[in-house]
Design brief:
This protein has 130 residues and is mainly beta. The protein contains two helices and nine strands.
Length: 130
Amino acid sequence: MVLPRMPLVVTGADGRAHHFDVEVASRPVEQARGLMARVALPEGTGMLFDFGRPRPVTMWMKDTLIPLDMLFIDGAGRVVKVAADTVPLSLDLIESREMVRMVLELAGGTAARLGIGPGARVDHPAFRSR
């Protein structure tokens, strides 16, 4: 399944902008597959799950072979939670604990290396009209 791609910018609390090229999973079938069975996620890439409207979100790592950082993004484009270095193949649930519109998955360790945490801003067309 080939997903659409788009550029995405995440600006950390320090004001530094980090550019990514992300695949966009906006349909349930795409979101269910996610990054399963991938053996690598190149630096500067990721997958953006767009749920269309803010809601509680639960993710997991079933059949995902590489550690990921999951950035949970609210309806205003603000990162509200980072689940860092998630465990490959784990069935443990990873909950947003807040209403979120999107989840951005990056290679494990990326958020810490770039200083991206709660409060970071995501530049995406869905947030520009706010």
